[in-house]
Every structure is written in structure tokens, then in C-alpha cells.
Specification:
mainly alpha; 7 helices; DctQ; membrane; cell membrane; about 210 residues
Length: about 210
């Protein structure tokens, strides 16, 4: 089990690094969008390549960050009933979901997506829009993204099995690798608590 947990930690590290890179893809898409708008308004010039590269970057950010999102448990969940169940029942629901739903879905997408990627690359397919880009780079995001999501699903599966066997921490607990937003929120919360606990200063003597 310890060997599997090491693999799980390696997958977590990989997707954590991917998440740090993806934010730059979003920044690049935003920058290109702004520059495209300025050039169109000022110089009355536009290019389909500028528009398509924005779509490519968004596709890469959305798909490749899926594993990172799962690592931080930020995918949409319906917890109306699940949150009322005992912790072990919640873990079992996750195990069933990762093993019998997430894994087959990712494998199916990879099974169908890789041949399509190879076909796009071999044919050199180009966007039908004037000045459009070649298509295979954006199709590459599909197997990469679902491959990372599959690995993260297996990592989460390992962590939950280890928890049930008493060999791992609570997988539903708080993540130690918090986002910058979470760190800021935590710091503000502590500051507010400290200010509330501080005694009120004595009124100045007249």
C-alpha cells in the first residue's frame, strides 16, 4: 500500500505543477484577446488566427486542468445527501465513482480520441476559416487532459482505499497545498478573529 501511496503523491505533484502552468495559458488567452480587440478597433484589422489561438488556449486550460481540479475537489458535486452520510459511506461512494464511472469514461475518451489526434496530425488538417490554424494541437489537449484526469482519479482511489484500511489520512480533509486565494482568505479570517478578541482601547481622558 505504501508503494501505491508514493505513486499517488507523485500524481498529485504532477497535477499540482500542471495547475501552476495552466494559469499562464489563461493569462495568455486574456492578453491575446485584449490585443486583438485593440488592433481591431485602432487599425481596423483582425485575423481568424488570433481568434482561434484564444480557443486553443482555453481548450488546453479547461481540459488539462481537469486533474488539478479533481485534486482540489473543485468539480461540481451534489452533496445534499452525501454530506449527511457517515465518512466511510462518503468514501465508498467516491471509490465506486472513480472505479466504475470516471475510469471507464476516461479510457473511452482516450480510446476514441487518440486515433482522431493521429488522423488530424497525419492529414495536416487546417481550420476552414481564412488564415486559420492547424487543428492537431488543439486535439492534443483531449488525450492529455483526460490522461491527467484518469491518473488523478486513480490517485484519489488509492487515497480512499488507504483511508479505509487505516493506512492513510482522511481524503476528505483539508488539503495542505492550498491556493493563493485560500491562503489569503485564511489570513483575513485569522486577522478578523484577532481584532475581535483584542480588548477595546480605553476612552481618552477629557
Amino acid at each position: 500500500m505504501q508503494a501505491l501511496l508514493k505513486i499517488s503523491r507523485a500524481i498529485d505533484w504532477l497535477n499540482a505543477q500542471v495547475g501552476k502552468v495552466v494559469i499562464w495559458l489563461i493569462f495568455a488567452a486574456t492578453l491575446i484577446s485584449a490585443l486583438n480587440a485593440v488592433v481591431r478597433k485602432v487599425f481596423n484589422y483582425s485575423s481568424n488566427a488570433y481568434l482561434e489561438v484564444q480557443w486553443y488556449l482555453f481548450a488546453w486550460a479547461f481540459l488539462v486542468a481537469a486533474g488539478y481540479t479533481l485534486l482540489h475537489r473543485e468539480h461540481v458535486r451534489i452533496d445534499v445527501l452525501n454530506s449527511r452520510l457517515p465518512k466511510k459511506a462518503q468514501v465508498w461512494i467516491d471509490i465506486i465513482g472513480f472505479a466504475f464511472f470516471l475510469t471507464p469514461l476516461c479510457l473511452l475518451v482516450l480510446w476514441l480520441g487518440v486515433p482522431m489526434l493521429i488522423d488530424k496530425y497525419a492529414s495536416g488538417e487546417v481550420s476552414p476559416n481564412t488564415g486559420g490554424l492547424i487543428r492537431w494541437p488543439v486535439w492534443l489537449a483531449l488525450p492529455v487532459g483526460f490522461g491527467l484526469l484518469l491518473l488523478q482519479g486513480w490517485s484519489e482511489l488509492i487515497k480512499r482505499i488507504a483511508f479505509l484500511r487505516g493506512q492513510g489520512p482522511d481524503p476528505m480533509g483539508r488539503l495542505t497545498d492550498q491556493s493563493a486565494e485560500a491562503d489569503l482568505a485564511e489570513a483575513l479570517r485569522k486577522q478578523a478573529e484577532a481584532e475581535a478578541a483584542a480588548p477595546n482601547p480605553a476612552p481618552a481622558a477629557r
